[in-house]
Design goal:
single chain, inorganic pyrophosphatase (n-terminal core), alpha/beta, binds manganese (II) ion, Diaminopimelate Epimerase, Chain A, domain 1, 6-stranded mixed sheet, 6-stranded parallel sheet
């Protein structure tokens, strides 16, 4: 079971990651006592899981396995439609359970990785309190028996890499590959929201990772739906000053939206993109900005948190607005779709007003 001997020594040994990361608020002893004494653990990824949340869950699973936790399940809400995320799960043979297949209250412990608040970007019941939270997203009032919330780091994978180091857990090739791929994707190859701790974490992972697999995963081709979606986003774009807003209309794969927002940010003269699309009964939005004076997470939160949920980082953010607030829309109802697009574009450009001057 739990072996706390040697923890103090390892904690104090000054690796580059240990030197750069701020561990001052993290009670590693408490985390170990909690996890090592449980018999069942559900690790909940955020909805439509991305490589940061998936790889972080895999690392937490490895820690729990090392400490003899009998049942460990990685659970997620939503679906995995992004081609690179599907490829990651297949190539690295990662077992994920849909939240519809399990009951969270059946587990002795529930851990959130890469998200922190029940019901916000996850499918946990809003009235539950997670036992463990490890996250880097900006958020207030995260509750749990053990909360490790470090918004200063660029990826949750960075935090979990530090846990593996602190607890001296073996980094096998599969785990190191998943974590390093998570780092690449979360930071868009170390270009976005990256701190020195991501580079230090990459140094820990690099010797153990399979770089051919990472290259293969990085080159996973777009699905036809993604290419069509990006095409629609290009065609429907409205640009004012340095801001671009576009609608994808009704789509089947939610993951197209952030990919289109990322893609359009490459347009010359554009430093902020907000793309939205309708999936089932909700409008989903993704925002991206390279304008360091603009906090896109706060902007989306202020604009849409009253009618739905929205928020995120200063340079990337997302949101979800139930269609109910606009009224129900039948498929093929072009008039209603136009009204939604007009209403959304107006609200978004109003929110961006300070930045739309040329
Ligand atoms: Mn993340």
């Amino acid at each position: 079971m739990s072996d706390l001997s040697g923890l103090a020594d390892r904690f104090q040994s000054a690796t580059p990651l240990a030197t750069l990361i701020d561990d001052s608020e993290t009670d590693y002893r408490r985390f170990q006592e909690l996890v090592a004494s449980t018999d069942s653990l559900a690790i909940l990824c955020h909805d439509n899981p991305d490589p940061d949340t998936i790889a972080s869950a895999l690392a937490l699973e490895a820690i729990a396995n090392e400490w003899g936790v009998a049942t460990v399940d990685i659970v997620h809400g939503g679906t995995v439609t992004h081609q690179q995320n599907r490829a990651m799960i297949n190539v690295l043979d990662i077992g994920l359970k849909s939240i519809t297949q399990v009951t969270l209250s059946d587990y002795s412990l529930v851990a959130f990785v890469d998200h922190g608040i029940p019901g916000r970007n996850n499918s946990a019941p809003e009235d539950m309190t997670p036992d463990i939270v490890i996250d880097h997203h900006p958020a207030d009032e995260i509750e749990g028996q053990f909360v490790d919330h470090r918004p200063a780091v660029g990826a949750t994978v960075t935090l979990l890499t530090r846990y593996l180091e602190v607890y001296d857990i073996e980094l096998d090739e599969r785990l190191a590959t998943a974590l390093l791929f998570g780092l690449h994707r979360e930071t868009l190859d170390f270009n976005r929201g990256t701190t020195s701790t991501e580079h230090a974490a990459a140094c820990v992972l690099h010797p153990h990772a399979d770089h051919n697999t990472i290259e293969e995963l990085t080159n996973s081709v777009f699905t036809p739906e993604t290419i069509s979606g990006i095409g629609d986003a290009i065609a429907n774009r409205e640009v004012r000053g340095s801001c671009l807003v576009s609608s994808l209309g009704r789509i089947r794969e939610r993951d197209i939206i952030p990919q289109a927002a990322d893609y359009l940010l490459q347009l010359e003269g554009v430093s902020t993109t907000i793309v939205y699309g309708i999936v089932d009964d909700n409008i989903y939005l993704s925002g991206r900005t390279s304008n360091t004076q603009l906090h896109i997470g706060d902007l989306l939160k202020e604009t849409f948190d009253q009618v739905g949920s929205a928020g995120g980082h200063h340079d990337m953010a997302g949101g979800k607005v139930p269609l109910g607030f606009i009224g129900s829309v039948d498929d093929g109802d072009d008039v209603a779709m136009d009204l939604i697009d007009q209403s959304m574009n107006r609200q978004i450009f109003d929110a961006l007003h300070g930045w739309t001057e040329t």
